[in-house]
Design brief:
The structure is a single chain. This protein is mainly α and about 500 residues long. The protein is built from 24 helices and two strands. It has three domains: about 20-25 and about 35-45 and about 55-305, no CATH class; about 310-420, no CATH class; about 450-500, no CATH class. The protein has helices at about 20, 40-50, 55-70, 85-110, 120-130, 130-135, 155-165, 175-185, 200-210, 215-225, 230-240, 245-255, 260-270, 280-290, 300-305, 310-325, 340, 350-355, 370-375, 390-400, 425-435, 455-460, 465-475, 485-500; strands spanning about 330-335, 335. The chain starts with 18 loop residues before the first helix and ends with a helix. The relative contact order is 0.13.
Length: about 500
């Protein structure tokens, strides 16, 4: 998504204004990401659209969702009033982002702190929170795939296929993000609030209703495919914290304004302009669609909404249901049995305060000095396995306080001088190359070699179908719900070979 001027007017500012402040229609970013009045509705519809081909009623519900959000004011209008000014608009946006990123790099070179992530837990929180959007990457273009014969959609079809990595597992954007989540133990995601599903739901709703919302799809693609400042900064700081930035660096390259998706988005907008009649109404719908790229909680909103103590409380509250009957009667804190403390999630803040008062948690000190941490990690950790890797990192960084800015993973002991002893991912790659090794990519290999019932069904059905039905079956396998699977990867490769032949 492009980053508007009001999102980040000054890269060097310690606490920039969030987009919510400039957009009354947007839910405010806050520590708890409190659900809106339609709690659960966004998530439910998101899951139905992401699970497979929706029925007519579900598509209609998604279309109504789009109409509601088109009626709102999401961000300032960015697209020019006339389509012939698109090239200048794209160039100006790219130059503005480059200038701000240059200022950011200058500030960092001068010793400035990270702009986005306070510590490793903060970065992992971000990766987890934006997952509902990343896991449907490219979905807004899916509805144009059945119309691949229309040459006016060539750039859009190609963009969708490239989002799918042209069928290569190590380039499919959704598969890459799924691997990233698994690598850092960031799933499951079923406790993420409605607001974090708004942007992903918009993309799915556009993809399943493309014929009704074609101008809006074109406009959304224009807004979303411009290279954003937050993408560059995120990639830089993730790498600095020893977290794999490949998903983000890949988008930096594919969204370029020369031969990448940003340029193709402009070409596609011009190619699809009506030639018969007045195109002004169509173009206004394109402009409105571009504003959908700014709907929901954006990247900066999510990052600025992180409060580590609130996340610790959320994590322990989620665990309280399973833990309230698992402690012996002799386990007590501040005169109350642990089972009693855990009996109601709203008591968790007081429970944490009691643990600190009793000396079980010593904030601002090395985690080894907190007896509570010894229950989670160590040779005799009675609670080993209760918390995921992400949850442990959050607790680890909360206890360490300001010292956690060094980005130390919880699995490593304190390094001399307080510096993390690991190398960055780029440094690791350079070292591997120097040793003649190649870093393995997630999902490498021919998908046809994998055991998968959908893949088996696909390969059995295709030879028995006429050409038109074969293409329809391939398109079905390339849906947002399936393109990242072995069957979807195989279908993408066949589809793209036939389209280009």
């Amino acid at each position: 998504m492009y980053i508007a001027e009001h999102e980040w007017a000054a890269p060097a500012a310690a606490t920039p204004p969030g987009r919510a402040a400039a957009n009354p229609g947007r839910p405010a970013a806050n520590a708890n990401l409190a659900p809106n009045s339609d709690v659960g509705k966004t998530l439910t519809l998101y899951r139905r659209l992401a699970a497979g081909e929706p029925d007519a009623a579900t598509r209609a519900e998604a279309a109504n969702f789009l109409r509601e959000h088109l009626a709102r004011s999401w961000g300032s209008q960015s697209l020019p009033e006339a389509p012939q000014d698109l090239a200048a608009w794209m160039t100006a946006n790219a130059e503005a982002v480059a200038a701000k990123y240059s200022l950011y790099l200058e500030r960092r070179a001068a010793g400035g702190s990270r702009r986005f992530f306070n510590n490793r837990a903060h970065a992992l929180y971000f990766l987890r929170s934006v997952a509902p959007t990343k896991l449907v990457d490219g979905a807004w273009l899916y509805g144009l795939l059945p119309h691949w014969r229309n040459g006016r959609f060539d750039d859009l079809v190609r963009t969708y296929v490239e989002e799918l990595g042209e069928g290569a597992a190590d380039k499919n954007h959704v598969l890459l993000y799924r691997k990233l989540l698994a690598r850092y133990n960031l799933d499951p995601l079923d406790d993420l609030p409605d607001e974090l599903h708004v942007q992903g739901l918009i993309q799915l709703a556009l993809g399943w209703n493309a014929e009704e919302f074609l101008p809006e799809v074109i406009g959304f693609n224009l807004g979303y495919e411009q290279l954003p400042l937050h993408l560059l900064v995120s990639a830089y700081e993730l790498n600095e914290l020893g977290l794999d930035p490949y998903y983000f660096t890949l988008h930096v390259t594919v969204d370029n304004g020369d031969t990448g998706h940003a340029q193709r988005a402009c070409q596609a907008a011009l190619a699809t302009l009506p030639r018969i009649g007045d195109p002004s109404a169509y173009w206004q719908r394109v402009r409105n669609g571009s504003r959908l790229a700014d709907a929901g909680l954006g990247t900066v909103d999510v990052i600025d909404g992180f409060r580590i103590e609130d996340e610790v409380v959320r994590i322990l509250s989620n665990k309280s249901g399973a833990g309230r009957g698992a402690h012996s009667d002799y386990c007590s804190v501040a005169g109350r049995k642990v089972n009693d403390w855990l009996s109601q999630p709203d008591q968790i803040p007081d429970f944490l305060a009691a643990l600190q008062q009793a000396g079980w948690i010593k904030l601002g000190e090395p985690v080894e000095q907190s007896r509570f941490w010894g229950l989670l990690q160590g040779e005799r950790a009675e609670m080993f396995g209760v918390f995921s890797g992400y949850e442990l990192q959050v607790i680890h960084d909360w206890i360490r306080g300001e010292a956690s800015a060094d980005g130390q993973p919880f699995t490593e002991r304190d390094a001399p001088g307080g510096k993390p002893r690991r190398a960055s991912f780029r440094a690791q790659a350079r070292l591997a190359a120097a040793r003649g090794l190649s870093a393995p990519m997630p999902g490498e290999g021919d998908p046809t070699e994998l055991l998968d019932p959908d893949l088996q069904s696909l390969t059995e059905q295709l030879p028995r179908l006429p050409d038109a039905q074969q293409m329809a079956l391939l398109v079905k396998a390339m849906s947002p719900a399936q393109h990242w699977t072995p069957a979807g990867l195989y279908a993408t490769r066949l589809f793209w070979e036939r389209v280009r032949s």
